[in-house]
Structures
1.
Amino acid sequence: MKQATLRVFRGDSNSGQTVDYRVPVAPGMVVLDALHYIQGHLAPDLAVRWNCKAGKCGSCSAEVNGRPRLTCKTRMDDLPQDQPITVLPMKSFPRIKDLVTDVSWNYRVNRKIPPFQPREGVEWKISQLDVDRVQEFRKCIECFLCQNVCHVLREHDKKEQFAGPRFFVRVAGLEMHPLDGLSRAGLLKDQLGLGYCNITKCCTEVCPEEIHITDNAIIPLKERVVDEFYDPLTKLFRKMRGV
Amino acid sequence: MTANYETREHDVLIIGAGGAGLRAAIEALAQGASVGVVCKSLLGKAHTVMAEGGIAAAMANVDAADSWKTHFRDTMRGGKLLNNWRMAQLHAQESPDRVRELEQWGALFDRTESGDILQRAFGGHTFKRLCHVGDRTGLEMIRTLQDRGVQQGIDVYMECTSTRLLTDNGRVAGAFAYWRENGRFIVFKAKSIVIATGGIGKAWRVTSNSWEYTGDGMALAYEAGAELMDMEFVQFHPTGMVWPPGVQGILVTEAVRGEGGILRNKAGERFMEKYDPKRMELSTRDVVARSIYTEVKKGRGTEHGGAYLDISHKPAEYVKKKLPSMYHQFKELADVDITKGPMEVGPTCHYVMGGIRVDAETAQSTVPGLFAAGEAAAGLHGANRLGGNSLSDLLVFGRRAGLAAAQHAKRSSTPSVDNAQIEQAEKELLAPFSNSGTESPYAVHRDLQEVMQNLVGIFRTDEDLKKALAELAKLKSRAAKLSVEGSRLFNPGWHLSYDLKAMLIVSEAVTHSALARTESRGAHSRIDHPSVDPVWEKKHNVIIRESGGMSRRELPIEPMPEELKQILAAESD
Ligand SMILES: Cc1cc2nc3c(=O)[nH]c(=O)nc-3n(C[C@H](O)[C@H](O)[C@H](O)COP(=O)(O)OP(=O)(O)OC[C@H]3O[C@@H](n4cnc5c(N)ncnc54)[C@H](O)[C@@H]3O)c2cc1C
Ligand code: SF4
Ligand code: SF4
Ligand code: FES
């Protein structure tokens, strides 16, 4: 059977280094399969997160050959096999062990976002067209790969001021919910730090769910903030139309 | 001894953060209880997130003739009458309200022309009944519940595994657990505990289930004295992926057939015509799984030992819209474009109908203060579950369990936890670090999966099942000599050694029950007893722990009230 070398980060929050493992490559194998092989045969304490193995739960994020990806959707045969395949933990989050990082910050940010609140007296009728628009945002599997690549978090570590693309997607899903009656524009401006985003689109590029994070979530949200805080006329207009 | 653990106290402790656990938490909180939820993975990653096809609820948005009575009848017939009829009734009556509630909490389902929740066809359901969001219904459901729960104030203990229930004179007193991140211990004191830990599929080699599905909750309850019922009924979903090897077992949602997918064998024959000409591809799962298995055994399988499932006769845009994740799954993992050609599929271990025996109204087990809901509980599905009936089960009985657990807590005094039980739990968990043995937990797990796959699979015989029991005994003694490397810091090998203990308990329970049931009914097929036996229609298998080990009893089914009998016998309403 063909073999490949995986160069995997081993270590904890203080220290660590990469270690090379030789792994047999079966047809259609993904990087997560290779990591499981290592666990089962070479390094039983290798720490990895995973659940569905089918790109549905967003647990298995890592940086493969320098690219942030879901390891369960990264095919071995898509990677050059004449050189070691490096697998590193997401860089923007504190390391716990090996490929497992501390993503609890994301859950704290999420708590700041007021939930869906239906408008008074709504009838629960919705058109499929409205649903389609919002479902793009609700597809998010919380892999946090977008959070991992966004330079505001990765290079500038602005975790206190900036919520990151994942949560702009979440707010967009609420704001554009056809029956929601709340405005989260103030929150976006003051607490979630939407202004820090300078539309580099790196988040969109890595999203495994192919959510158009920048074009469909962030930019419309920025427009809402502008309308609400800097353009009273449009705001009034929007209120009157009930959108 | 100074405490090696932190302590937390809640009125209601919920073990499991899937649909059932979260729905229970929301309800208990609404009753004014303080609620803690523990889960092995991060919040939002439980199995519920993977559910694809939909939630069954007789809302009659698409087929106006649908009603709870038809849903009840479909569920009972699908379950081959072994269902707890009261649960089947409550489930059919309450699920529409539970779905509407989700919508009021922000879930967005696909719509009909008139703006209502759209419903699709599924196997065994007379009418179009499954409320859905493309093929990612579970994601919509778990996000809605998790956000609701967090906003309402549940405390979530993520990546925290419970390994033992603590009891006080026969009633529940709390739970012992460890943090996966650092291996430290935590003791929960609680007046009520709800087990919502899901299923057991990881004991089989070909499975749609994740590493979490090791039967922990059933093992915890069993060790605390609760009863495990109908464990022989393990559902093999007819359509898992078969190729390439790494993806074997990953689920291909029944929604493919619900949307018109056709099954064919190597020769191109639509073989369901032979096995169930009336319902064809939308027959119940037990029938379709056996049909595919039989075709393959008779040499009519595909190149990689499966059947063809084809949806490419539908317009490509429609397929991509209604089955987006299937489209991507096959494209990315198997190089197959399902809008152009067929998929290769075969049976995969998917769901367990059996579980903790509970009271229909309150979801309480036979241990006071111990409740169970979702896949971990038994009763609703009988001998075979209909697709879509799990997600609705989670909502209906999750809510009921949360309600009853909170009420129970209100009535109860604070139990005291017993240090001896805690010390024993600590010792047991740490044993693999100091064992002189050399057994790898991964090797024992692989061997267990082979045993269950080969001897306790879709078709069973007396001989195989007896052999399985002997093999399980050997595996148990190997499991006593497990040894793990490394430290307590996020150590999957160590984590697996506890999971193995749970898997061995549930595997043994399944095998004992399967051996006893000398008939074929629903998902339980005995080659040596190929027909249904009216005597077995009247009783459940119940597994309990006794001083000598695992023991089995038979429990008569309660007679059904006349009005339900009539509904069941009718052909329509
Ligand atoms: C791929 C797939 C698709 C499916 N599609 C559908 C569908 O379309 N419709 C449908 O009705 N059903 C479907 N099902 C079945 C359904 O999804 C599951 O039966 C259901 O989600 C189980 O929910 P639950 O709340 O009981 O458990 P889960 O959602 O599995 O949650 C279990 C929880 O318990 C926790 N846990 C387990 N053990 C411990 C422990 N020892 N300590 C602490 N926490 C623990 C886990 O971490 C997890 O949080 C599908 C199943 C699969 C696998
Ligand atoms: S577009 Fe904005 S949110 Fe996305 S990566 Fe760039 S700066 Fe970050
Ligand atoms: S938006 Fe995309 S990249 Fe970001 S967390 Fe969600 S799925 Fe992952
Ligand atoms: S394991 Fe679920 S997304 Fe990779």
2.
Amino acid sequence: MSEDTRKPVIELVDIEKHFGAVIALAGVSFSVYPGECHCLLGDNGAGKSTFIKTMSGVHQPTKGKIVMDGKNMNFGSPRAGMEAGIATVYQDLAMIPLMSVTRNFWMGREPQSGFWPFKNMDFKKADEVTMSEMAKMGINLREPGQAVGTLSGGERQTVAIARAVYFGAKVLILDEPTSALGVRQTSNVLATVDKVRKSGVGVVFITHNVRHALAVGDRFTVLNRGKTLGTAKRGEITPDELQDMMAGGQEMAQLEGSLGGTV
Amino acid sequence: MSADKPMADERLAKVSLTKSLLQRPEVGAVVGLIAVILFFTVYADSRMFSLSGIMNFMEPAAQLGILAIAAALLMVGGEFDLSIGSMIAFAGIALGIPLVLWGWPLSLSILFAFGVAVITGAINGFIVLRSGLPSFIVTLAFLFILRGLTLVSLKEATGTTQLRGVKEAAGDSWLVEMFSGDAFEGAFTWLANMGWIDTFKNGTPKVQGIPVEIIWFVVLALAASWLLTRTRFGNWIFAAGGDPIAARNVGVPVNRVKIILFIFTAMAATLVATITVLEFGTADASRGLLKEFHAIIAAVIGGCLLTGGYGSAIGAMVGAVIFGMVQIGITYTNINLDWFQVFMGAILLIAVVLNNWVRNKAMSAH
Ligand SMILES: Nc1ncnc2c1ncn2[C@@H]1O[C@H](COP(=O)(O)OP(=O)(O)O)[C@@H](O)[C@H]1O
Ligand SMILES: [Mg+2]
């Protein structure tokens, strides 16, 4: 990859976020190129969620700037972030189980046909697009009217991802999409991430599982206590080094010493 | 649905047909309706299912159904309104006092009552959304507040708990016809002349038309069902009740949807108020007592989940018909009337268990 010659879709520079006296982010810089998967790693409480919420408009940064297309962005709301092409798939808030796949897919952007006041939701179009977009992600639905609750966890994530991509996401943020999934479903979601990346979307993939990150990541950034410990490209870092950085380096080395290298 | 779906496998298509039938929320109510009809066919006098017998139970069913349909939409949207019973009495005086005591024309009085409904519904919704309290509690407060305000206003205005003289004040405006009496009288006279329906000795039909509330009920059920299942706003109702945070995250205006549903519920109560005030010629402080529970029961029998995000308007319609049929049907049997509440409680319980089972079945199979 030659990221250096291309422009990032989004660039965040020296982001700080304070919640009262709590400093959740103390100067984090991060960028995503089109078609790359940039993994954001870090232990619980490192500030990963706070960071991506700032990126998507849920939080406003206390300091720092967000740049897209050379312009300084100021997302006042998640809606504003969405309109700029930042889509977030949350781990548990993605889907409504009792509603059909089609209804979930189009939620908030339902296509309409007919004339006011007799405007219908255009189920013909909605069903067709849902089926074909899901097929692109490798999932053949039995029928678009199937309730999302009957899908597996990985398939639900895929509906949410397919939806974000279809509605023109430039940056797709996935907050720990694999942490609640089994092995098979995890590999399905990772395969989906790979497809999305190849379609030119920039993916931000949050995880605290080094193996999942290494499976799809092009670059890796580790957060610790609200600061970046650095960004590494694929091939420039070994799994062990990455694991070390996540655990805060030093502590891990000590632990490893005392356990006799079994970790 | 499109004909050129990918994966046209007829074996799968068959499975999904039975399953999509089972997935319909109203399936339990329809089964219940058939059971209730069978029960009364066996145990009730055959006059129950004559034309006049049907009108007898459809009239209360329709009045309840108008409320139940609105309550069902609100429940699908994730909220309750326990104030609808009191709203019937409150809207009754909001119509009766301007009409009888202030001398307003009927049209303006009706408009005024519906205006009061819009404001009351909006206040209910606004407080629920602003405070974040369960709508159960907020509207329980309004159950008492509205009933109390009705009593206070009536005593203040008339010295009693009733306001008479509505019929005289209303005169014979076309609006009276819209909200009371029978519809399609001409057609029924014609049917009688053809000898197709029962008549009295003098040749006038025993049933002179369809009571207007039944027309309102059916039209409202069809409109609400279309809104819920076929439109964008319907999708927003399901989303707002299913998971308001997820819905907001993708841009569904959840608060607006819920406030509109609260307003719609108050307006449904006002429609029932208008019908009863014009029918009886009085506004009464005790009108609509317990109707909030009956409406919720009908909605639940119709397949609405108490947790929101699931339900149907047609189901609520069927639930209301079951309710009316049991209530009136008992009078056609030898069974003591006091059993009515026992029956309704049992039906509610069976419906909830059945709906739960059907839904789990539909949701679990992969
Ligand atoms: N809304 C908030 N108010 C106060 N503190 C917060 C808020 N959100 C996050 N924090 C704090 O910021 C830190 C980082 O949290 P978070 O971004 O959720 O970490 P991660 O997602 O990496 O586990 C934690 O110490 C957390 O308590
Ligand atoms: Mg987190």
3.
Amino acid sequence: MNRADRLPYAHLWVAILAFGAAAAMALMQALSRASLDLPYRSAKMYYLSVTAHGVLMALVFTTFFIMAFGYVVIRYALRQDVLGAAAAWAGFWIGVVGVVLAATAVLAGKATVLYTFYPPLKAHPAFYLGLTLVIVGSWLWAGVMIANYRAWKRAHAGEAVPLAMHGMLATVIVWLIATVGVAVEVLVLLLPWSLGLTRTVDPVLARILFWYFGHPLVYFWLLPAYVAWYTLLPRVAGGKLFSDSLGRLVFVLFIILSTPVGFHHQALDPGVPAGWKLLHTFLTLWILFPSLITAFTVTASMEVAGRMKGATGLLDWLKRLPWGDPFFAAVALSMILFAIGGFGGAVNASFGMNAVVHNTAWIQGHFHLTVGTAAALTFMGLAYHLVPRLAGRELELGLLAKVQPYLWFLGMLLFSISNHVTGLMGMPRRVYEADYGGAAAAQAWHGLTTLSAIGGLVLFASAAFFLLVMLGTALAGKRRAPEPLEWAEPLHPVGKPGLLDRFGLWVLVAVVLVLIAYAVPIWNHLRMERFGSPPFTPF
Amino acid sequence: MNVPLYEKIWMWAAGGMIVAFILMVFAGVAFSALEPPSHVETIDPAQVWTDARFANRGVTQSPTGATVIAVAMMFAFNPAEIHVPAGKPVTFRLTSADVTHGFQIVGTNANTMVIPGYISQFTTTFSTPGEYLIVCNEYCGLGHHQMYATLIVEEASS
Ligand code: HEM
Ligand SMILES: [Cu+2]
Ligand SMILES: [Cu+2]
């Protein structure tokens, strides 16, 4: 392996291992939810494992994968050695220490607070410290990404930065704006409180800060997937990117719209006035816009590919696409499931309808389509594409890799649809048992929880295939000559840098919108008479 | 920016759809008061049992409706059985004696977070008499799944 490729490769493996551990937890959860009598099954184990699964999937797997992809983009799209490699490695190790700390606290049963860690549930300080270190590590990554962009710009005056880097920079900016919220929450409110330095904490203030972070977190996961859809997929499909400038527009829209929307997660919170919730709801609905553009542009790029291969009829081009390529299949299938997820998202965001689905099983059905598929399945596909190139080895167990995305698709349909439906029937999320003293309403959920468990089994099989392919490739793949990573060319040549490349301007717009959405409600909140909560550890 | 015609049409359609969503939300708020519970009122969570607002828990009926005062705690609702009349507005006032909980009446759109230090309040009307399951829908500790109560909607006497 090229020495410089070790940096992304190390990040990738932390991501893959976190995914593997989290998938094992998920299997147990999924079976537990169908009330199967398993020997190790207890409420304590269930909630502990949901915490571990949520943290490892949503925070560790994603973050490390995205950092890896960022370095890949520097090396192969900017075509430069990573400037600031020492800082990058420091970020890696700080993040790894953070993961170990947080995971130890969780596995020891001292932090069964779920990945949202709402106070006054109190985790062991090591949990908060661990999360802080992961974020500090990611900030070093963000700094390295920005420094490399600057260096590239100096060397390429008058050129527009490659779209892949444009998208990754948007990711970095969204992340930097977002993490301010969780950093304040953890460092100012939770860490001192868990150490016993402060006595109480205001749970609503903590929730406001958490969701200030929590919604843009979603776009931190999604944007790198979009980068792959725009800049790698059309190439693998054998075609061209339909429009480079629309890609840039999409990334800029996400910089602006990702953050000032967090109250939509607090639609049912007391202590947050309805007017501000309404404003956040209006902004939220506009976030559908860049994703709808993406759906069109990426689909059109695939059609271009099919037609370049000679397709003629209306839908004939679909047949010409490389459905047997694991990267292509993973992305195409994740796009289909994301369309369903986007529809569900519109329901979640609607002011009135939210009350029907809030904190029901619908929600887990929803986010396993979005982060759990649109992002995660795309990342698995990307891993098939990147690992052989980084490791200098052939993809091993290619047949498993070919089947894996389809298995995920099938398992996710079963899992997600059954959870959407039980959610509409009122089944809450995050429950070990859904028996409720034999209440009739609860009995009605049970056939569907079994279906969801079957979906979970299929998903787990798919996750296991992925892990086998990765391990096989890294350990036993045939060595081969390095092969470059090829990026999609746009249909029309990229012009000079324009308005959409002026990141400073868009950051400014984003900050202004964040201030409009948050400054007044937070100010009003802080001025009102509030009573904090002492800590509780009911686990 | 040079945007191909079909994509332009698509973008206008997408924008139009979003505007339609927004108008729908707006209409819901303006005409049917479809507003999520957003009451702003605080309370000292350490004094919940003695605070005058929550000292007498239960249902108070009046000719025009009913008010329900209830406390969520690990891992039960107090009171555990709530009787309300059908067809009349019922106002719920809830708070938590410990961690954050949820309060969801299964089969209806009555749903709110219950957060220590804050009072949740919302008003709703139940049209169909019968027995309803109330569940806590926010993780609150190892007994989270055992936290429920019963709502009995009774035929209004007149
Ligand atoms: C191996 C496939 C997977 C299965 C079988 C699975 C299954 C589950 C189950 C049963 C729950 C618990 C739901 C509850 O009690 O509320 C859960 C929660 C969760 N899953 Fe997955 N999942 C899988 C993959 C993923 C992926 C790929 C991600 C994201 C990258 C993800 C993110 C989450 C998150 C964030 C939670 C929420 C935990 C919480 O409510 O605190 N899962 N999953
Ligand atoms: Cu959100
Ligand atoms: Cu609960």
4.
Amino acid sequence: MKQDFKILGTRPARPDGLDKVTGKAMFGADKSVTGMLHARILRSPHAHAEIVSIDTSKAEALAGVKAVITGDDFADVESRWTRYTMQNCMAQGRALYDGHAVAAVAAISKTVAAKALKLIEVEYSVLPHVTDVDEAMAPGAPVLHEGVKARKLGDDVSGNTVGYYSFGHGNPETGFAEADEVIERTFKTAAVHQGYIEPHSCLADLGGDGRGELWCSTQGHYMVREVCSEILGIDASQLRVTASEIGGGFGGKTTVFIEPVALKLSQKAGKPVKLVMSREEVFRASGPTMSSSIDVKIGMSKAGKIKGAHAKLRYQGGAFPYQMVMMGAMSAFAAYDLEHVQAEGWDVMTNRPKMISYRAPGAPMAVYAVESVMDELCQKLGLDPIDTRLLNAAREGTKSSYGPTFKAIGLVEALEAAKAHPHYSAPLAPNTGRGVSCGFWFNFGGQVSVSMAINADGTVSLIEGNPDIGGSRASISMMAAEALGIEYDRIRTIVGDTASVGFSDVTDGSRVTFAVGIATINAAKAAIKEMCKRAAKIWEIDAEAVEWVDGAAQPTGHNAGDFPPMSLAEIAAISGKTGGPIAGHHEGAPDKAGVSFGVHMVDVEVDPETGFTSIKRYTAFQDVGKAIHPAYVEGQIQGGAVQGIGWALNEEYIYGEDGLLQNPGFLDYRIPVASDLPMIEPVIIEVPNPGHPYGVRGCGETAIVPPLAAVANGVAQAMGVRMFELPMSPPKILKAL
Amino acid sequence: MRYVVAKDSRDAVALLNTGENARLLAGGTDVLVQMKLGNKTPSLLIDIKSINGFSDIFAENGGFRIGAAVNGAEMGAHAALKAMWPGVVEAVELIGSTQVQGRATMVGNLCNGSPAADAVPAMLAAGAMARVEGPSGTRDMLVAELLKGPGQTKLGKAELISSIYLPARPEHSGDAYLRFIPRTEMDIAVASAGVNLVLDASGTVADATVALGAVAPTAVVVPDAAAALLGSKLGAQALEACAAACAAACSPIDDRRGTVEFRTKIAGVMATRAANIAYTRAGGQL
Ligand SMILES: Cc1cc2nc3c(=O)[nH]c(=O)nc-3n(C[C@H](O)[C@H](O)[C@H](O)COP(=O)(O)OP(=O)(O)OC[C@H]3O[C@@H](n4cnc5c(N)ncnc54)[C@H](O)[C@@H]3O)c2cc1C
């Protein structure tokens, strides 16, 4: 594997920075076209209700209204997963949660659209609802959809239980029998929202000829194209989707919420339609992550060796079938080398908005529960939390708790770095506790396409198909520069629309720097091969007798030294005369992503009179394989830690008895503000991923996994009382005290 | 909707009296947000920021008169005001963020009628007076007399407040304001307390006012809590009695921001901590 890098590991200026700070960047809501209409969506005021009738006639009669649609305007689709997505965008027959879309209007102005919404008459017949995961799973609960219960499950769970998974090996009971100490605990975590600053926004233009243009804020415009073309019944080739600059996604923009609605309105009105969600709509009707109820049982020897481990994860993911608890069950014990382990998971439906991914989806709550019990065992047995984790840590060759055997991984390195860091030995102030937790994420590969043009002036234009949500344009340019042997600023990477480059999977799973990186390196190889061929042609020697060194072609073998090297710029300048334009491209589906482990350490102070928790010091250690652009990597680690802190302390979806969301806004949905936090110190660890030419693993998600337990463990140390429910908001802490 | 810049307070009162669905606009940090959310839909918006004197702070009879359009940042930058009434100024400065501070006014905070408004308990503790102007003339009244309930004040339909007066104060006096929020800024008080103390030469509390916010339909003055501090040097017993009196005065709601139990407990904690700060500011030694 390559180790001596010229470009990787440096920190060039962000290619998107200037546009973002000057306001030039075009986000989802920034695009307007002449003659466009403004759309608004009418949403259910009930948690669960039959839609008896919808009368849109008064709204249609209002001057300036150009189209009104309801669920009846959407024809059924073949795939059941697409149907769920469609019915989440617009209810058909039943409103399944507070905020579920029931009708939409396109009008000449926002004001007219808002007026028209008030003129739509919906008759509801209210149905029983359920929002809590344990209640929804209990027999007798109101069932959201009949006939979708997971096979294999018995009568002890309700029809809302749509998924069951089990991972592990050995027999935990055997392990518990061998253990000196066994602790079993039940935890609950609240649903939290990704909290991206930019609401979902799009501009749709779908003509009567079935040709469409869609501009939207998304993590995957190919996904948008596939889903929308299926829902609208048009060919994928006819719908061109362009991803705007994105104001945050964190997984929340890996599906569609408004795009099919805007397209349908545009089709009906015959005009372009702009649709922008309000913040309240984002909270009520876009996907938060799952809430959970979890049992964890771990048995340990006096020396700290884990003998047996068992987790039962019950997640609710809102109003439609979904599959995500699997990720939690796979992640729960991934950090440890265990003989007897089992993690089971149940996916459950409730009358809440349909869940969607949020940074390491499913993992943070599972790991929170496991790492809390680990901490309690260490406390009880008088063991050092880092030494105990080191004793049990997964390493190269460990058969993971979810099946595969780990290749080179960096958990031990992260734990050792944490142990050696001055933070770990710093003295603690009164009412302050120090918490530690491990965390894990898989990272993914998946489908990618990259196209790279070598321009006549010696620069490179690179097109890829993955929206840049974390700095990937910089990293991709850097990898291209490294592979081609030219300077970073000779390259410009752009995210192409769906008609300009081949299919690319959604930007998620920390896959982009890994997968697009491999495609970029391969595209560069293809371009290099062609450039060597051109040089060979000029020199009149065999193409095989040319090699690429430091950004230039040079003769090799018995021709070595016969000609001076020809740089990329020199070859490019005369490419028109040597066979035409030079380009490289690569399409593939790399699958050797490397898992990433992290260890977080936090000092928290709890005010014993108010239950207020403040984060005093925070250090995050993470194996990222190779940090291409370390500043972006540090930002990812810091951002993940902060989101995890919010999850631990204050963020939560609050539902009343009536099943309505009580806090659809940033005032009462409390994400941390800057003054709540100390500087989060990131420590980058690089254990190269053998599955990537430069060692890249991916780094965006692991960092949100450890903070929940790290903070909870710190709080437990500070208060001497352990909390089993997130968020640990001040009223709950004070009550526990 | 019409937007009018009032020339003087007569003009503003006349506009309020037209029978239209009128609203006064000071900093707009409540009113514009409410309009954007669709909660308020005035047909006439009367901007009072250009009225002569409304943006001034001036000394009067040993105290300070603060115009209705003076924003938080301006109060924070006024050294003499801050030295005399640090608790009132710190309460106003807690409102929002730097951006909000450049707009938000103390009078707007009062007239928006939120039980959790930060400036109000501090004004109550300080014995602040409001100058009210209306169709039938001008009158001065205690801020405490204007409080009515969530989203309301006792101002008449065509009345406005032109200024707030913070009185002169004796030697050895000090005030302080504290609020509890689950974060460190950009939040609404779950419970809050303003305390104003006057000490005698020996450091014993000779006069006290304690006011609480966010624990009742309006901010409330709690005479029993003040009585508990009188004659003390803020020993443990006095503070305990003060906290108990605060708890007894609480009739909060249970909502997403805090439980009854939590608010009741926290009110006393805020009051005793604010009392300690006020005591030190008054020159007392804890
Ligand atoms: C981001 C943000 C953060 C905030 N944080 C806080 C906070 O921490 N604490 C807090 O207490 N508040 C907070 N607020 C609310 C608001 O900023 C304050 O209440 C502020 O003091 C209102 O002052 P204003 O001048 O902007 O009032 P405006 O919005 O102009 O007016 C408020 C109300 O008072 C009426 N009014 C204004 N002037 C007069 C007058 N002279 N006579 C009679 N009636 C009048 C108006 O008609 C309106 O009903 C926050 C608001 C925002 C947007």
